[in-house]
UniProtKB/TrEMBL annotation:
Protein's name in the database: DUF1883 domain-containing protein
Gene3D superfamilies the UniProt entry points to: Atu1913-like
Protein source organism: Rhizobium giardinii
Ranges in a coiled coil: none
Pfam families tied to this protein: DUF1883 (PF08980)
Length: 103
């Protein structure tokens, strides 16, 4: 099994509903990745994974949970110098999604 060559800060968001907004505050430019439980497992093994987010050049940044499930946020410095401290909070709770029926 491969291992990551850099450290990261991990936030386990547990079960979240689609539409919940997460606010991440950083002290420096860093990568912020919002990912599902299965993608977080791939990330930890340094394997190809999918995520919402990317390089955060401004702080705070807000990301929205795209679908209900178990979610994680990771802050890492891969490709960046120095370190960044981070904090996270849920700023909006989701309302039940509204579906439209086709006529």
């Amino acid at each position: 099994m491969r291992k990551l060559k850099f450290s990261f800060t991990h936030y386990d968001l547990k079960q979240q509903r689609a539409g919940v907004t997460i606010e991440i505050t950083l002290t420096a430019v860093a990568n912020v990745r919002l990912m599902t439980d299965s993608n977080f497992a791939l990330y930890k093994q340094a394997m190809k994974h999918q995520f919402v987010g990317g390089v955060a050049r401004k702080s705070p940044i807000r990301l929205t949970i795209p679908q209900s499930g178990h979610w994680h946020v990771v802050v890492d410095m891969e490709g960046h110098h120095g370190q960044s401290e981070s904090s996270i909070r849920i700023v909006e709770t989701a309302t039940a999604p509204r579906f439209q029926s086709a006529s």
